[in-house]
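Long-time lurker. I teach an intro course on protein structure, and each term I like to show students one example going from raw sequence to a predicted 3D structure in token notation. This year I'd like something fresh instead of my usual example. Would anyone be willing to generate the tokens for the chain below so I can use it in lecture? Attribution to the forum is fine with me.
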Amino acid sequence: MSEQRGRTSDEAIYQAVRTAIVDHRLRPGDRLPEDTLGQTFGVSRTSIRKVLQRLSIDRLVVQRPRRGAEVNRPTARQAADVFANRRLLECGSIPAVVRHFTPEHHRDLHALVQREQAARRAGDRSAAIKHSADFHTQLMAVTDNELTRAFVEQLSSLSSLIIAVYGTHQSIGCDCGEHDELLRLLEAGAVEQAERWMDHHLREIEASLEFADAPREAPDFSTLFDDSEIAS
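-- Reply from a regular --
Happy to contribute to a lecture. Here you go:
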């Protein structure tokens, strides 16, 4: 990041690093050195520490003694907990989604499905995972319950990390069910069928995970963040 950008706000840094994690430009296990990030964004280590603490609350970052911060790499047990909570929240929210579902919701969610499918066809796995997570978050926004939406957004972000490391082609492929199929059920008001669809969908994604580690080089922070995504 060039010096001409000047000092960047803590909020802008938080959003930039969070987006890099969710977009999988920063991967689970990548270390986040305070001094390197401070130089990258032109701010003090204190500012970076505040951002990393925020990301820790989101569970996207973990702080390890003598190692510092790194992007969270959920364990198999944590993955099971994430998907169990997603089933509880998302399946349980289907009746509220159906009650509030409008043609505008269908239009916006279908647009996300199209972007997810296009990314999958193009072989852009990271984008497909991101669009899928956005679909689930926006679906929960239909409930008009901000706490539910926020919880599912956090769980979907964690799921994205899990799928980025342990997922297979089935984790984002049609074997797990097309989201358009769910939209048809919601539009028809088929609550029980939609609940079963969501439960099966999430269980299939979890079952497709393969928990094996793969080596990865340390990220180059000087080229990771695009100038256009952060305002000075």
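Some talking points for your students: Residues 1-6 have pLDDT under 50 and may be disordered. The CA atoms of residues 176 and 201 lie 5 Å apart.
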